Amino acid sequence: MGDQFIEDILNKLQNGEITREKALLKLKKQPFEDIGFAKIDHHRKLRQGYPEVIYGAGKTVEQIIEIISVMINNQEKVILITRIGQEVADQIREKYQIQYDPMSRIGIIGAFQSNRGHGSIVVVSGGTSDMPVAEEAAITAEAFGNHVIRLYDVGVAGLHRLLAHLDEIMSAKVIIAVAGMEGAIASVVGGLVDCPVIAVPTSVGYGASFNGLAALLSMLNSCASGVCVVNIDNGFGAGYTASMINQR
Length: 248
Known about the structure:
The protein has 248 residues and is an alpha/beta fold. The chain is 39% helix and 18% strand.
């Protein structure tokens, strides 16, 4: 999108030729910057409230760095790169200041957004082994300006651990329930609260868990109302959706 295009819209808006709503719609429709191997969606923040996030898996370090450069030149204040390893983060750090969390495998360039949420997002995990996915959800939500409370290793094998945190759970605006094995914690939490519960099945578990398929099916079949489900190990998707709910 060129400067002349924006100037024309602003002039028409100033002269009363178009309404504010129509001007905003025209801006929202301007799509992307084509850099050959990728098309950077600069207007995603305008359309959806959040900038484009870089999915790092499968990309070369050079590709990630070039995408970061284009986004910074477009005045993006916070850039998330998901699913990258320590080695990739170290190579990015040679050019840009990056915060890297090895647990969630998320890299962040820039500062977290200021708190824009209307309440707390509570991230609950069944076991310690679910923490990488839970942290991906939590850090994503924090980066987009939400207050996050973490309650880890509170699964149904010891339900008293979860019940010891009823105040935090029942005052949440959104809950993200992360679990592998049989994924039962989503139904338990869903039966306690009056807010949406986003269930995240993980690939944690023994053979018959089928790399998260058992937890996925269990969560999809939850008898608790208000439970929705994202894909296996999709902590990012859960954190993003929880942020959208918390900021409406």
